[in-house]
Amino acid sequence: MLKYLGVLSLVFFNFFLAQAKLFYIEVKYPLLGNEAPPGSPWPMPFYMNDTSNNLLYLKKSLFQIKSNMKVDCDIIRENIRHYRNVIFPPKIYSNVTKKSKINLNYLTILNLKISAADVCPKYPDSNMNESYNLTISSNGADLYAESVWGALRGLETFSQLTFFTEDNRLAINDSTVIVDKPRFVYRGLLIDTARHFIPVPILRKQLDAMAYHKLNVFHWHIVDDQSFPLELFKYPNITEKGRYSKAHVYTHKDVKTIIEHARLRGIRVIPEFDSPGHVEAFGRAFPEFLTVCWKDGKPYQPIFSVQGAAEIVNPTNEYVYPVLKEILSEFKNLFVDEYIHLGNDEVYYDCWKSNPDVANWMKKMNFSEYHHLQAYYSSKVLKIVQDLGRKSTVWQDVYDNGVELQKGTQIQIWKDTSILPEHGKWSDYLNNVTRDGYAAILSSPWYINFVSYGYQEWYKFYQVDPFANFSGNDAQAKLLIGGEAALWSEYVDGGNMDSRLWPRLSAIAERLWSPAHVNDPEDAKFRLDEQRCRLLRRGIVAAPVLNGYCGDYEYGMAKSNVFDPVFNYGWPNL
Length: 574
Ligand SMILES: *[C@@H]1O[C@H](CO)[C@@H](O)[C@H](O)[C@H]1NC(C)=O
Ligand SMILES: *[C@@H]1O[C@H](CO)[C@@H](O)[C@H](O)[C@H]1NC(C)=O
Ligand SMILES: *[C@@H]1O[C@H](CO)[C@@H](O)[C@H](O)[C@H]1NC(C)=O
Ligand SMILES: *[C@@H]1O[C@H](CO)[C@@H](O)[C@H](O)[C@H]1NC(C)=O
Ligand SMILES: *[C@@H]1O[C@H](CO)[C@@H](O)[C@H](O)[C@H]1NC(C)=O
Ligand SMILES: *[C@@H]1O[C@H](CO)[C@@H](O)[C@H](O)[C@H]1NC(C)=O
Ligand SMILES: *[C@@H]1O[C@H](CO)[C@@H](O)[C@H](O)[C@H]1NC(C)=O
Ligand SMILES: *[C@@H]1O[C@H](CO)[C@@H](O)[C@H](O)[C@H]1NC(C)=O
Ligand SMILES: *[C@@H]1O[C@H](CO)[C@@H](O)[C@H](O)[C@H]1NC(C)=O
Known about the structure:
InterPro entries: Beta_hexosaminidase_sua/sub, GH, Glyco_hydro_20_cat, Hex-like_dom2, HEX_eukaryotic_N
CATH topology of the domain at 47-95 and 102-180: Chitobiase, domain 2
Strand content: 15-25%
Organism: Brachionus calyciflorus
Catalytic activity: Hydrolysis of terminal non-reducing N-acetyl-D-hexosamine residues in N-acetyl-beta-D-hexosaminides
Oligomer: single chain
Keywords: Disulfide bond, Glycoprotein, Glycosidase, Hydrolase, Signal
Bound molecules: 2-acetamido-2-deoxy-beta-D-glucopyranose
Protein name: Beta-hexosaminidase
């Protein structure tokens, strides 16, 4: 039996039709926490205040978004267009009351006031300024931002402040003041497209959803053991032998589409070329580059539960480096971000140790330890990227193995005792990495591919604070630049990606954007459910948080196909 919440909710829901009506999950467990009013934003801004009980109304024909840009800027142009569509969704609310006896106050303008009005930046980067302020009043709304990137974040917040009233009018609170800026500069999502190929429209949709959460880095784990779906001009046979099929390939044109889609949303695209492990698919075109594992005096013997018969690069083969250089330079020309991710995770030494040729080579080189071999390999690959004028991100393994890395290398932390008992704690890794002067990105507690009943991990994701048990000084704290959720795709493809990611990733997005004190999941769940309904209306098939319903709308109830689950409405065809 479902039952209304307390008096508070009755008051709200009688006067303003919320975007969701929320109920007990089970009657015997009353819901804790403070309910969020309609139009509550996610992630929560740094500061928000509301001093009036009045509502302003919005009507598409009476509302404009203007910008003070002095140069033509496609980023601003496309976002004004897009957010007009987001703010005024296609008419699913067919029962709008036509005539009104009361005089309504309309909000007629949103002014974008960008300080750097003569700069239309080409691409988002690690230094972009995403801060903005927003004031809503009956004279109009003003959005102040240092750069276009802040304007994008502010437009998103503005769109979330609008909501439908009981009589299906679009409204916004009068006299709202918002001062907002991100807590962390790096707020990412890794998507693995090698275990399962994720079609381009699905990736584009996830970029939309990322922008709805102010996430700003798409880490594209594009290739792995299972497949190599990236088109390479220099070595077409790597793709031919590594892809699942001809249809399962990202052409250069596809990659450019993704980068363009991301650019317009203020999202960086960082590609990963993972090696020396995770290269089985790559090795199909260059079998001689893989280390042959030995057992009982015989080659090509799999090492059960650690490595296949040949799946890790053989660093002693000097011919591998010129080929890697060609591949990475193709990456450089294709992907625009200043960073390339070089993987270097899970480099287990068993296969190298089993191989007599590797042992002989190491003797010749006076390498007494296998991490010297890894260091030899990693430093060569890092040098290639440096020579190409790019910076590297690596998984923490290479650091853990004592490899000295170039200054400016970013280290991604994925290990934790909760992932494997022999690991250390992620907080200790963060302390160590930043102590040694490297920038750190936290992923360990945010492996979003792990699921349990009801998908309620969002509680766990939400309660993580990257600075928990951080013992470094201020300089070290600055090196903890943010975090990244990882969606490993062994059990995910385009079909179930929406509900695997959303709104669970929303929880992580708030942790990375909002101030640390916004951390009560019992309060957050109401706002999160509102965000979930917002996502549904925007074509993202997010999973439910609480019991109840999404205003007048459920996924699948729309009379037209405007909520196409794959192609979001309102954006230009790229
Ligand atoms: C909100 O603004 C009003 C009016 O300026 C001020 O009195 C009040 O302290 C503010 N509230 C918060 C929480 O900042
Ligand atoms: C809108 O205004 C009402 C009344 O002042 C307030 O209770 C509510 O918190 C406001 N909503 C938001 C999203 O700030
Ligand atoms: C439409 O609105 C009218 C007037 O508010 C109401 O009487 C009617 O029940 C509504 N119809 C539906 C399907 O909600
Ligand atoms: C927003 O307002 C704060 C506080 O008044 C101010 O420090 C900051 O510079 C403003 N930011 C922008 C982007 O205008
Ligand atoms: C971003 O711009 C605002 C407003 O000018 C400024 O106060 C803030 O310090 C800038 N933030 C960063 C990280 O540069
Ligand atoms: C793939 O192409 C490269 C260079 O074009 C060549 O050296 C290599 O032998 C080819 N691999 C196979 C398996 O034919
Ligand atoms: C290895 O050590 C020997 C003896 O010290 C030295 O002669 C040789 O040059 C070293 N080899 C390399 C590759 O450094
Ligand atoms: C951190 O560094 C200390 C000192 O070098 C070391 O003892 C410890 O094992 C490291 N912690 C982890 C989790 O690697
Ligand atoms: C922080 O330290 C406390 C006390 O040792 C421990 O219980 C907790 O799990 C630690 N949290 C993290 C994130 O490491």
